[in-house]
Design a protein that fits this description.
The chain has 68 residues and is mainly alpha-helical. It folds into two domains: 1-36, no CATH class; 38-68. It is 57% helix and 6% strand. The model has no long low-confidence stretch (mean pLDDT 81).
């Protein structure tokens, strides 16, 4: 599943103000709202997301479906 629509020049460009367009508009809206949270709230949310992703990676690894 393709989530980010990013060209190679966009990835290689050092311009920090580059915009990445998301094909999933609901996710894009959520990310904009998350960006408005204070630093502590963002860090808490990142910890939750990382925990869920780690759980999925471990499950995939144990099921033999790891994609590295």
């Amino acid at each position: 599943m393709k989530v980010f629509a990013v060209s190679a020049d966009n990835l290689l460009n050092d311009n920090e103000n580059s915009v990445v367009e998301l094909e999933n508009h609901a996710l894009n809206e959520q990310l904009m709202l998350i960006n408005q949270l204070d630093k502590e709230e963002k860090n808490a949310l990142i910890k939750i997301i990382n925990s869920m992703l780690t759980k999925k990676r471990m499950k995939d690894l144990l099921d033999g479906k790891a994609n590295f």
